[in-house]
Amino acid sequence: MARDTLRGDYRDIIGESRQIFEVLQQIERFAVTSMKVLISGKTGTGKELVARALHKNSGRSGELVSVNCAAMPEGLLESMLFGHEKGAFTSAETRRIGQFERAHKGTLFLDEIGEMPLSMQPKLLRAIEDNRIERIGGEKPIPMDVRIVAATNRDLAQAVRHRTFREDLYYRLNVAAIALPLLSERREDIEMLVVHFLEKHRRVSKSGVLRVAARTLSLLKAYPWPGNVRELENVIERAVSLARDGVLLPRHLRKDIRTYRKQHTDISEAIATPENEKIVNVPLGATLEEMEETFVRETLAWLDGNRTEAAKVLKIGRRTLQRKLKRYNI
Description:
Radius of gyration: 26 Å
Structural class: alpha/beta
Distance between the termini: 31 Å
CATH topology of the largest domain: Rossmann fold
Shape: elongated
Number of domains: 3
Number of helices: 14
Helix content: 40-55%
CATH class of the largest domain: Alpha Beta
Mean pLDDT: 89
Largest sheet: 5 strands, parallel
Low-confidence stretches: 263-277
């Protein structure tokens, strides 16, 4: 599963996990088609990045135009999508070109489509089915060549059952589907994301922060991230602004991240530290010697190589720790 086997440009989507590779494969398959794509995922999982990647790799000559369907009332949303003629309503002093027209030959990204008012949905459906729109107050249909990509953090199938979303529009939009994983489902990508956001915000803020302490990274990997990648970026941006001496330390993180205790039921042990717990997973079948080496290595990494503190956490003498480090070539 190597990203270099893909032909498209996906540099803005960070990660090497199996879940992200599967998402990129789907983008690659769908991008060059004219199919409508429905992107689903919780807040902060990167739906807009996927929409941008679909457009960037589509070969379409027009631009990507985004509309947040949850950000405006129905009347304003209709004018935003379809435009209006001069005099169409009291405040329409000039003609306005809608986002459908702006997206001609390109892609129209309908973000938070599940929040679109029910009364607005038939108008969108008609535009999609007919490939043409009419400006408010207009008398002539305008043909459109627009690729539709929609995104939602809601379960639209459930919304259809609850009659808060039209079934016919749902099936029109859900021709090709891409479901985005939670950040907690691809924890192996957290380190790469942290490095990416560190570099991004270090440049913006002209900070001297160059690296992340091992303890800090362990805390970030353990946290459940209910706000997903967006929350992680916000945490790194804040930490960069607080950090000094070129290193992100645990004290630069929010208190809830520093004090989070992971609930676990697998065969594991917790190394207690002043900041948090470090969970060390030991595979079944490991020898006692292999388990000991794992605990020594993980404890030392967790404490940024501080041997005095590692000896305290492991409840052994410093000389005993020195012998074990020599035995395991650590």
